[in-house]
């Protein structure tokens, strides 16, 4: 058996530690509530499963900030699970369990039901049998109104990477040395080709070479898998609906749920007049030249009434995250380019939210937002994506001492500030 790969996927090197706030329970429930659907309440006891958890960073953050909930992580790389278990022990977290298993093995042994199931970064890097096993797990283990989060590479944007990925994979297959050695041979070959003008007629490939600036640990998992395959979002949505009775409800990127800040202005009317939901969603991918998606699905989604939706929105609270820059944020970088905002308004809202949490209903009374709930949502979503603002609720005082958590992860090379009142962590530069 190869020591470099299992099931065509790199296991020789651990996946780097990353934290994705979009995967946390409060973020997900807020997005689903804003879309008009009932979601699990993170204040209540819940169960949360991550498929392909790597070294468990996201689960450890969640376990530390939601002490009343139970978390499970599954990964087939034993070094990932060992690192995650060691971290949980060092942090004194008893509400998270890490299981060494592939998806087929976990499907066979699992008898739990979950309010949240998440999968980030592997779905378009694994083979079709493994994709089907994820589908089967979600089909059997997600509760009604439960949330499924899925991150994957998509068309049309990820097609720009296909030339580079194929070259990297072919070098790796021809080279008998380590994954990192073959990766660096492939990177050097790519840059030599670029210098020789090989991509002069392929501007998108030339631009995609910037991807090679990522760490080797990340690029090995990105480019050396034998199953690298971007997907069409409409095909993914159809498969999960047909095979797991899951409905696509929106994006975990809240900005992508508001067309006025996620679609170029000249294309908005064309997309708005498109009646077929699947075609409309694909047109959005084209308009954004989308490279990846973070989709949110629900089992048996239950919509609020108009009045219930309004009441739910009004009660959502927001708070500034710690360690944000002191200068006012006026330009927001989005997939469709830079969005210019009113710097004075951004300064005002950030200053207010730094003092205390504000409910949506309170902010809606400000003169700048009165009678304009969509404008307020746009503003809050942009600030959320910029990691300035986050949904807020006061969790149990049993949450972990942030200093202990931060010291531990700093020693691992990951600088995070735990924010228990928001059920998240803030990456520190």
Would you kindly provide a written description of the structure presented here, covering whatever features stand out?
By secondary structure, this protein is an alpha/beta fold. Among the domains are: 5-156 and 229-305, 3-Layer(aba) Sandwich (Rossmann fold); 157-223. It is 42% helix and 18% strand. It has 17 helices and 16 strands. It has helices at 25-34, 57-65, 78-91, 103-109, 128-141, 162-174, 179-195, 203-208, 216-223, 233-244, 265-272, 277-288, 306-315, 343-355, 360-363, 373-385, 402-411, and strands at 5-6, 9-10, 47-51, 70-75, 96-100, 114-119, 142-153, 246-251, 292-299, 317-320, 331-334, 337-340, 358-359, 389-392, 416-419, 424-427. The strands form five sheets. It has a seven-stranded mixed sheet, with helices on both faces. Helix 5 (128-141) packs across helix 10 (233-244). The protein is globular.
């Amino acid at each position: 058996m190869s020591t470099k790969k299992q099931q065509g996927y790199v296991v020789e090197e651990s996946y780097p530690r990353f934290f994705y706030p979009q995967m946390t329970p409060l973020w997900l429930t807020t997005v689903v509530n804003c879309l008009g659907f009932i979601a699990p309440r993170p204040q209540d006891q819940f169960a949360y499963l991550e498929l392909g958890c790597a070294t468990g960073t996201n689960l450890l953050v969640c376990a530390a900030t939601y002490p009343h909930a139970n978390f499970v992580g599954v990964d087939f790389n034993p070094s990932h699970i060992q690192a995650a278990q060691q971290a949980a022990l060092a942090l004194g977290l008893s509400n998270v369990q890490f299981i060494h298993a592939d998806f087929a093995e976990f499907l066979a042994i699992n008898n739990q039901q979950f309010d949240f199931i998440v999968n980030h970064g592997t779905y378009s890097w694994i083979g079709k049998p493994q994709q089907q096993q994820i589908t089967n797990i979600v089909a059997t283990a997600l509760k009604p109104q439960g949330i499924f989060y899925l991150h994957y590479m998509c068309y049309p944007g990820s097609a720009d990477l296909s030339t580079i990925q194929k070259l990297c994979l072919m070098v790796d297959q021809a080279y008998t040395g380590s994954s990192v050695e073959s990766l660096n041979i492939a990177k050097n070959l790519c840059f030599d080709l670029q210098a020789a003008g090989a991509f002069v007629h392929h501007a998108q490939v030339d631009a995609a070479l910037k991807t090679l600036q990522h760490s080797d640990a990340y690029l090995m998992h990105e480019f050396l898998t034998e199953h690298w395959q971007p997907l069409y979002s409409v095909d993914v949505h159809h498969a999960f609906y047909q095979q797991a009775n899951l409905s696509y409800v929106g994006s975990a990127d809240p900005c992508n749920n508001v067309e006025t800040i996620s679609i170029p202005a000249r294309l908005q009317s064309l997309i708005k007049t498109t009646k077929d939901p699947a075609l409309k969603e694909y047109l959005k991918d084209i308009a954004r030249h989308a490279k990846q998606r973070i989709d949110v699905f629900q089992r048996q989604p239950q919509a609020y009434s108009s009045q219930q939706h309004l009441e739910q929105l009004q009660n959502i609270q927001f708070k500034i995250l710690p360690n944000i820059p002191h200068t006012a944020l006026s330009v927001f970088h989005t997939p469709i380019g830079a969005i210019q905002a009113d710097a004075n308004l951004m300064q005002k809202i950030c200053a207010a939210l730094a003092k205390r949490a504000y409910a949506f209903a309170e902010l809606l009374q400000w003169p700048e937002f009165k009678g304009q709930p969509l404008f307020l949502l746009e503003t809050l979503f942009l600030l959320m994506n910029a990691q300035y603002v986050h949904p807020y609720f006061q969790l149990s005082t049993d949450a972990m001492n942030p200093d202990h958590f931060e010291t531990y992860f700093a020693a691992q090379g990951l600088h995070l500030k735990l924010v228990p009142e928001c059920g998240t962590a803030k990456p520190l530069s």
